[in-house]
Amino acid sequence: MSKTLRALFLSSAATMGMALPAQADDLSIICRCVVGGVNSETATWIRDSVIPGFTAAMAAEGREITVNLIEFGGQDEQMTQQLALDFSTGAGADVAAFDGFLIPSFVEGGLLRPLEEIAGSAVTDWEGWDNISEGSKALMSYNGVPYGIALGTDVRAIFARRDMLEAAGIDADNWQPTSWDELLDDARAVQAANPDSFPLQLNAGMNMGEATTMQGYFMALLGTGQSVVDDEGRYIVSSQGILDVLNLYRTIFVEEGLGDQRAQLLGDGRNQTFANFRDGRTAMLVEGDWFFNSVLNPGAEFGLDDRDDLVVWASMPAQEPGAGYRGQDFVTVSGGTGFVINPNTDMPDEAWALLAFMNSQEELTNFQTFREARRIRIDVDTPNNPYLQETQVSLLPLTTARPNDPDYNRVSAEIQRMTESVVSGEMTPEEAMAQFRTAVIGIVGEERTVTLD
Asked: Quick one: 117 and 221 in the same domain?
């Protein structure tokens, strides 16, 4: 890395509050993870397992390589901004944590290169591809070409506190709402038993970023039988389904106060919703695997020491039975985060070797001892996590994914803006949808949008 680029990196890193690699010539890896903080288990795994294991493996080949972990403690959107800056200026870590949905826009912007283009035949010949499904491989691909490797995939469900359900007279062991009406009735029952509670959390607003789109809007929209795009890949900008979702938000946050309206508008609102769940103010929260496996993990900032006994889960119901996406009774959506190689790395072969080592069966199995999750490789088990085992059967067959489209990220921001307009009380659902329609047409062009009756 040149002195000029090193200076740029130092400046941006200092601004974002990042730790820095000790030497410019060493390999470095960055993730949104901090030992003892956000995604602590990932940081600890990289520090205590991946790095020593990799350096020992390289030493056995007669190569001395030092790997430095850069711990980034900011929000997802700040991490995205940092990587865009780094990749566009030639700065940054050699290997970077990355959300798969961002790949199309980064590729179209010239900020990522295919793995094979960076590291050659070593990528093609990697043994791991034989143990990764095509669907999982696609999580970090664009137009069928891999730009990274996902650590795993996930599904989304409703997580609930057993104590709050039971206090409302709800059978927690058999809890499974079969429609939006049933879900709302359960929330009303919880609030009647605990008037100070915000029983239901469905993410909304700009400050929650992609968590609004993925965990909130998408999960509700699928329940109407729609996705964000139609079968031809056109963005749906006006429909009864969108109106129904926005009216659901209005019911929860504006009309009945079943959700914490203020938290949707705060800069740290997502953390506030986690605190509400931890502290017994929220009974039901729609989230992904990460919430159960990491956020609620005993010892974490928002963890629950009795998580496995206290927390139950249910599938997200369609608006009505059979009305969901593909005619389903229940819906979910999957994403994938993993790691990419900085296109400007001075050590492409070593960066690939590190990425491949991280995703070996042995290392991903080691990762399960830090935080058990739905890993990318089919030869890595989840032996001790009933949630993962059960949802692998109940939800994974029902899942779908976000559009693999370079414009998705900007459309997603308009989805977040639309939900915020409603939950803040600033606009009616009809007004917010009209604003959304105009904005998306401006982004993708009218020919790539559709209005449904």
From this structure: no
Q: Quick one: which of 203, 171, 216 has its CA closest to 189? A: 171
Q: What tokens does 448 get?
A: 């790539």
Q: Tell me the percentage of the chain whose pLDDT exceeds 70.
A: 94
Taking each helix axis as running N to C, give the angle between helix 240-250 and helix 408-423, from 0 to 180 degrees, rounded to the nearest 10: 50
Q: 336: exposed, middle or buried (C-beta count within 10 Å: 0-12, 13-18, 19+)? A: buried
pLDDT above 60: residue 25: no
How confident is the model over 330-389, as pLDDT tens digits?
999 999 899 999 999 999 999 999 999 999 999 999 999 999 999 999 999 998 899 999
Q: What CATH number does residue 197 fall under?
A: 3.40.190.10
Residue 325 near residue 316 (C-beta atoms within 8 A): no
323, 339: one domain: no
- Token pair in block for residue 184: 């709302």
Pairing of strands 148-153, 336-341: antiparallel
**Domain co-membership, 52 together with 130:** yes
Residue at 306: amino acid letter: D
User: What is the tally of structural domains in the chain?
Assistant: 2
Is the Cβ–Cβ distance between 9 and 91 less than 8 Å? Answer: yes
Same domain, 316 and 173: yes
Distances (CA, A) of 394 to 109, 156, 316, 368: 38, 11, 11, 21
The C-alpha atoms of residue 155 and residue 347 are separated, in whole angstroms, by 35
92 CB contacts (<8 Å, ≥6 apart)? 9, 30, 82, 83, 85, 86, 342, 344
In a domain, 134, yes or no: yes
Print the domain residue range for 381. 3-154+335-392
Is residue 218 a part of any domain in this protein?
Answer: yes
398 falls within a domain: no
What six digits make up the tokens of 267? 């800069």
Predicted local distance difference test score (pLDDT) of residue 133 = 87
**pTM of the predicted protein model:** 0.84
**Whether 269 and 174 share a structural domain:** yes
Whether residue 148 lies inside any domain: the answer is yes
